[in-house]
C-alpha cells in the first residue's frame, strides 16, 4: 500500500525482544563445544560447569537458591509443569485438593493447561474476575480461598499481563494463600527485567520466566520452584533437573539465557524509567493524533513498555496491516488459531464487548526502542486509523 | 496497481498471486477465514476452510515474497452463503454457493474492504478473462482452457466489480499452471483440485443438510421435509424419503426405490415440492426442457438489448461445467425468459443461467421455473 519502508519500527517487544549482544556472545561461545552436561568425563564436566554457573547467575539475579532453578524449553513448558505438576502431586497427597484458582486473564499457557486438567483430570478450575483495568478482584479471590481452603491444590496468578500490561497484586495473593499452606504459582514471563522480581521476598512457590522475552535466546526458560515443594514431572527420561524435568540440557542456550537475566535484572531500574517515559509519550501523542483512542489496562500498576490502546470503530487487524505496510510492527494482542483473530479473553474479562476487543492494538516497547520509533508511529497512526475506519466489514 | 490476492491455499490462487506480483503489481496475499470454527466444516487437505490450507497459502506467500494476512469473513460467509445454501435447499431449489460467494464475499466484502484500505483490485485464481472493451468498459470472457473455464461462477459480477478484478490464469491451461507452480518452488504444485462445496465435508450435501437444517429451521419444520416419492405418470407412491433437501432435479442415484420402473429404465427426479415433501420421479425424457424463466438478473455490463419481440441470440450455460445451449433470450422487468434452441436436461431451479455472447459473459439470472417441450410456459 506504500513503498517499502526504509526501516522497521519494532513495537512488539512483548512478543519477543532482540537478544542482548552479551547473551549472543555467551551463547555462541559454546555452540561448538562438545560435552553432555550429564557426562562424567572432562568434556561433560566442562558443560556441566557452564550450566551450574548459569543456574547460580539466575539464582542471584532473582534471589532464589540455585537448586530452585529448573531449566525448561520456555514459558509454556514451565507453566504446564507448574500447574500439572502441582495439581498431580498435591492431589495425590490429599484427594480432597481438587480446586485450582487462577485469574481469568492468564496467558493461554496457563489457561489451556487448566482447561486440560479440568477435562482430563477432573480438576475444578475457578477463573477469578478482574476489574475493568485487568487487576484481580482480591475480594472475590479471598472469598474463593476462604470458602474451602483445604480443597485447593494451587493458585496461579500472573505477575504482569502480557496483553494489557496490568501488574497483579502478587503480595496480596500470596498473603491469603500462604495462611492456608496453598502453593502459589506466578507466570512472570513479562515481569522479569521489566519490574523488580525477588523470588524469596515475593513468597511465591513457583515462578515462570523465559529467555526470549528478556534479551535471551528462544527455546529456553525456567521454572523457579521452592525447594520444599514436590512436583510430579511432565517429562520422564534421564532424570535431569532433580528428576523434575528430564532431557539433555541445552547448555549454550542456558548460558545465553543466564547472561540475559543477569543483564536485564541489573539494568531493570533504569530500563523501566526510560521505557515508561517513552511509553507515556507514545500514549499521549497517539491520543493527540486520534482523540477517541484510549488506554486499556491499569495506568498505575503497569508494565513500563506496554501501551494497549482502543481505537473505536476501527478493526485492529486492518490497522495492523496498514501500519505493517509502513514498517511499523505491533500486535492485535489476540490469540490466533489458523491466523483467525479471536477476541481477546483478557479484554473480554475486563468487560469490553467483542467489538471493543477487536478494535484494539498493543504497542510494546523494549530495550532497543527509541524516541524515533514513537515519532514514526505518531506520524502514521492518524491516517491509518482514518483509512481502517473506512474499511470496516459490516 | 496495489492488489489483494485472495489465496485459498491451492495451486491456482498461488500462481495467480505470483503472476500478479511478477507483472509488477504491489501484491498482498489474503487468506479468507470462512469457517467460524476452522475444524468444523471439513477436514482434509482439500477445500478452502482448513488450518492446513491457511498454512499452505502463507507458505506460498512466503515463497512469492509478498505480505500475507488472514481476513476473518466467517460471519459474512455464514450469513450470505451458508444460510442461503440451507434456505435454498429447504425451498426445494438447488443453489450454487460458489456463485453466491463470488457475488457476496470475494468480489463484494473483500473487494470493498480492499478498496477502502487503499488497494485497487482483487486477484483470484479463477479461470476466466477480463478484457478492456473499446468503450472503456471491462468485459468478462471465458478462459482459454475450456475444460477449466470458471466464467460461469463469475457471471454474477457487475461492471464495477469486474473493473477491479484480475484473473491472471485466464489465458493458461491448468497443466501449465501446475508446471509453473513447481518451477517457482510453490509446494502446492501437486495439491489436488477442490471440487466439492468447501463447507461440506466429503461432498455429502444431504448428510450435511440433515445435520444442519434442524438448527436453522427449528427441528419441527425440518422434520416436515420427509415425504413420499411418487411416479410422475401414474401418481403411484414408490417409496419414502427423509428430506426433500437430499434431492436435486435430474438426480438418478440414491433414490432407493424398491420396485423398478415397469419398463426397467432408470428413473430421475423430475420435481421437488418441499411443502408437501413430495419428490416426483420419471423417465429421462421427462427431464428435457426448452423454456426457462429466471429472475434476479445481474448484468456484467449494461443490460442487453433483448426485448421479447427482438430477443438476444446467444448461448446459455445452466450449471457449472455444463454444456452451452444456443438460446433466444428475452429480458423483461427483472425477468429473463430463455427459449433453448438446444434443449437441456435436469435443470434445477436455484441454479444460475449464465448468458454468453460468444465468449463474452452477458450476465446471469437465477432459474425459477422450467417448462418441457410441448408444454405451455
Shape of chain B: globular
The beta-strand count of chain B equals 17
**Continuous helix count of chain B:** 9
Which structural category fits the helices and strands of chain A? alpha/beta
Question: At the fourth CATH level, what is the homologous superfamily of the largest domain in chain A?
Answer: Type I PLP-dependent aspartate aminotransferase-like (Major domain)
Folded structure, characterized:
The complex is a heterodimer of chains A (394) and B (377). Chain A has 394 residues and is of the alpha/beta class. Chain A has helices spanning 21-28, 42-62, 75-93, 108-121, 138-147, 170-178, 199-202, 251-289, 316-325, 345-349, 354-358, 371-389; strands at 9-10, 69-72, 99-103, 124-128, 152-156, 184-187, 206-210, 221-225, 294-295, 306-310, 328-329, 336-337, 340-341, 360-364. In chain A, strands 2-8-7-6-5-3-4 form a 7-stranded mixed beta sheet, sandwiched between helices. A 3-stranded antiparallel beta sheet of chain A has the order 9-10-14. Chain A has a two-stranded parallel sheet with strand order 1-11. The model of chain A has no long low-confidence stretch (mean pLDDT 95). By secondary structure, chain B is of the alpha/beta class. Chain B contains 9 helices and 17 strands. In chain B, strand 8 and strand 9 (237-241) form a beta hairpin. The model of chain B is unreliable at 40-48 (pLDDT under 50).
Features of the shown structure:
heterodimer; A: 394 residues; alpha/beta; Aspartate Aminotransferase, domain 1; Aspartate Aminotransferase, domain 2; 7-stranded mixed β-sheet; 3-stranded antiparallel β-sheet; 12 helices; B: 377 residues; Rossmann fold; SH3 type barrels; Elongation Factor Tu (Ef-tu), domain 3; 3 domains; 6-stranded antiparallel beta barrel; 5-stranded parallel β-sheet; 9 helices; 17 strands; globular
Layout of helices and strands, plus pairs?
The complex is a heterodimer of chains A (394) and B (377).
Chain A: E1 9-10, H1 21-28, H2 42-62, E2 69-72, H3 75-93, E3 99-103, H4 108-121, E4 124-128, H5 138-147, E5 152-156, H6 170-178, E6 184-187, H7 199-202, E7 206-210, E8 221-225, H8 251-289, E9 294-295, E10 306-310, H9 316-325, E11 328-329, E12 336-337, E13 340-341, H10 345-349, H11 354-358, E14 360-364, H12 371-389
Parallel strand pairs in A: 1-11, 3-4, 3-5, 5-6, 6-7
Antiparallel strand pairs in A: 2-8, 7-8, 9-10, 10-14, 12-13
Helix pairs in contact in A: 1-8, 2-8, 3-4, 5-6, 8-12, 9-12
Chain B: E1 2-6, H1 11-22, E2 26-33, H2 51-64, E3 68-72, H3 74-90, H4 97-116, E4 121-123, E5 128-132, E6 138-142, H5 151-154, H6 159-163, E7 165-166, H7 174-183, H8 205-217, H9 219-223, E8 227-231, E9 237-241, E10 268-273, E11 278-282, E12 288-299, E13 312-317, E14 324-332, E15 335-345, E16 352-357, E17 360-372
Parallel strand pairs in B: 1-2, 1-4, 2-3, 4-7, 8-11
Antiparallel strand pairs in B: 5-6, 8-9, 10-11, 12-15, 12-17, 13-14, 13-16, 14-15, 16-17
Helix pairs in contact in B: 1-2, 1-7, 3-4, 3-8
Amino acid at each position: 500500500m506504500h513503498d517499502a519502508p526504509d526501516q522497521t519500527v519494532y513495537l512488539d517487544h512483548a512478543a519477543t525482544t532482540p537478544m542482548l549482544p552479551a547473551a549472543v556472545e555467551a551463547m555462541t561461545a559454546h555452540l561448538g563445544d562438545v560435552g553432555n552436561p550429564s557426562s562424567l568425563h572432562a568434556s561433560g564436566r566442562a558443560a556441566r560447569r557452564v550450566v551450574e554457573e548459569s543456574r547460580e547467575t539466575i539464582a542471584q539475579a532473582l534471589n532464589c537458591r540455585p537448586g530452585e532453578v529448573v531449566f525448561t524449553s520456555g514459558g509454556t513448558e514451565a507453566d504446564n509443569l507448574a500447574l500439572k505438576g502441582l495439581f498431580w502431586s498435591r492431589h495425590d497427597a490429599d484427594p480432597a485438593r481438587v480446586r485450582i484458582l487462577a485469574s481469568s486473564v492468564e496467558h493461554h499457557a496457563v489457561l489451556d493447561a487448566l482447561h486440560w486438567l479440568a477435562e482430563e483430570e477432573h480438576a475444578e478450575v475457578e477463573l477469578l474476575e478482574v476489574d475493568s483495568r485487568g487487576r484481580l478482584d482480591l475480594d472475590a479471590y479471598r472469598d474463593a480461598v476462604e470458602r474451602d481452603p483445604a480443597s485447593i491444590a494451587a493458585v496461579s496468578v500472573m505477575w504482569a499481563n502480557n496483553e494489557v500490561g496490568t501488574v497483579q497484586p502478587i503480595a496480596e495473593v500470596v498473603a491469603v494463600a500462604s495462611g492456608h499452606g496453598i502453593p502459589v504459582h506466578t507466570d512472570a514471563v513479562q515481569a522479569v527485567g521489566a519490574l523488580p522480581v525477588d523470588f524469596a521476598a515475593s513468597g511465591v512457590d513457583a515462578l515462570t520466566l523465559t529467555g526470549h522475552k528478556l534479551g535471551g535466546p528462544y527455546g529456553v526458560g525456567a521454572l523457579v520452584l521452592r525447594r520444599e515443594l514436590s512436583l510430579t514431572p511432565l517429562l520422564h527420561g534421564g532424570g535431569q533437573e532433580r528428576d523434575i524435568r528430564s532431557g539433555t540440557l541445552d547448555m549454550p542456550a542456558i548460558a545465553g539465557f543466564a547472561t540475559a537475566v543477569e543483564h536485564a535484572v541489573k539494568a531493570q531500574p533504569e530500563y523501566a524509567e526510560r521505557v515508561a517515559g517513552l511509553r507515556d509519550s507514545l500514549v499521549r501523542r497517539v491520543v493527540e493524533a486520534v482523540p477517541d483512542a484510549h488506554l486499556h489496562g491499569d495506568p498505575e500498576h503497569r508494565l513500563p513498555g506496554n501501551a494497549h490502546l482502543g481505537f473505536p470503530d476501527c478493526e485492529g487487524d486492518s490497522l495492523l496491516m496498514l501500519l505493517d505496510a509502513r514498517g511499523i510492527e505491533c500486535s492485535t494482542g489476540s490469540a490466533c488459531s489458523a491466523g483467525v483473530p479471536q477476541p481477546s479473553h483478557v479484554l473480554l474479562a475486563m468487560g469490553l464487548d467483542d467489538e471493543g476487543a477487536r478494535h484494539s492494538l498493543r504497542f510494546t516497547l523494549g530495550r532497543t526502542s527509541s524516541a524515533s520509533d514513537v515519532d514514526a508511529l505518531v506520524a502514521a497512526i492518524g491516517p491509518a486509523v482514518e483509512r481502517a475506519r473506512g474499511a470496516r466489514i459490516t | 496497481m496495489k492488489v489483494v490476492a485472495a489465496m485459498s491455499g491451492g495451486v491456482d490462487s498461488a500462481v495467480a498471486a505470483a503472476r500478479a506480483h511478477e507483472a509488477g503489481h504491489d501484491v498482498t496475499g489474503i487468506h479468507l477465514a470462512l469457517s467460524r470454527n476452522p475444524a468444523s466444516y471439513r477436514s482434509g487437505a482439500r477445500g478452502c476452510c482448513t488450518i492446513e490450507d491457511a498454512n499452505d497459502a502463507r507458505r506460498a506467500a512466503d515463497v512469492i515474497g509478498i505480505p500475507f494476512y488472514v481476513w476473518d469473513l466467517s460471519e459474512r460467509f455464514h450469513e450470505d452463503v451458508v444460510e442461503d445454501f440451507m434456505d435454498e435447499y429447504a425451498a426445494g431449489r438447488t443453489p450454487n454457493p460458489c456463485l453466491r460467494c463470488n457475488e457476496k464475499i470475494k468480489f463484494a466484502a473483500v473487494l470493498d474492504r480492499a478498496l477502502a484500505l487503499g488497494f485497487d483490485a482483487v486477484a483470484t485464481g479463477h479461470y476466466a478473462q477480463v478484457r478492456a472493451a473499446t468503450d472503456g468498459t471491462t468485459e468478462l470472457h471465458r478462459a482459454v482452457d475450456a475444460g477449466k473455464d470458471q466464467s460461469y461462477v463469475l457471471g454474477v459480477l457487475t461492471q464495477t466489480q469486474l473493473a477491479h478484478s484480475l484473473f491472471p490464469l485466464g489465458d493458461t491451461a491448468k497443466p501449465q499452471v501446475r508446471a509453473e507452480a513447481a518451477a517457482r518452488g510453490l509446494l502446492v504444485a501437486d495439491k489436488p483440485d477442490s471440487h466439492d462445496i468447501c463447507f461440506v465435508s466429503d461432498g455429502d450435501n444431504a448428510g450435511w443438510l440433515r445435520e444442519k437444517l434442524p438448527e436453522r429451521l427449528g427441528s419441527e419444520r425440518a422434520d416436515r421435509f420427509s415425504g413420499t416419492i411418487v411416479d410422475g405418470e401414474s401418481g403411484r407412491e414408490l417409496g419414502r424419503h427423509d428430506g426433500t433437501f437430499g434431492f436435486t432435479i435430474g438426480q438418478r442415484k440414491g433414490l432407493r426405490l424398491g420396485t423398478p420402473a415397469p419398463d426397467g429404465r432408470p428413473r430421475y427426479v423430475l420435481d421437488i415440492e418441499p411443502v408437501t415433501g413430495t419428490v416426483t420421479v420419471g423417465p429421462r425424457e421427462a427431464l428435457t426442457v426448452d423454456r426457462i424463466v429466471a429472475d434476479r438478473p445481474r448484468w456484467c455490463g449494461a443490460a442487453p438489448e433483448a426485448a421479447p419481440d427482438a430477443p438476444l441470440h446467444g448461448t446459455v450455460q445452466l450449471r457449472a461445467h455444463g454444456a452451452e445451449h444456443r438460446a433466444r433470450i428475452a429480458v423483461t422487468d427483472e425477468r429473463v425468459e430463455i427459449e433453448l434452441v438446444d434443449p437441456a436436461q435436469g435443470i434445477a431451479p436455484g441454479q444460475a443461467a449464465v448468458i454468453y455472447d460468444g465468449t463474452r459473459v452477458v450476465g446471469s439470472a437465477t432459474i425459477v421455473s422450467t417448462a418441457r417441450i410441448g408444454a405451455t410456459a
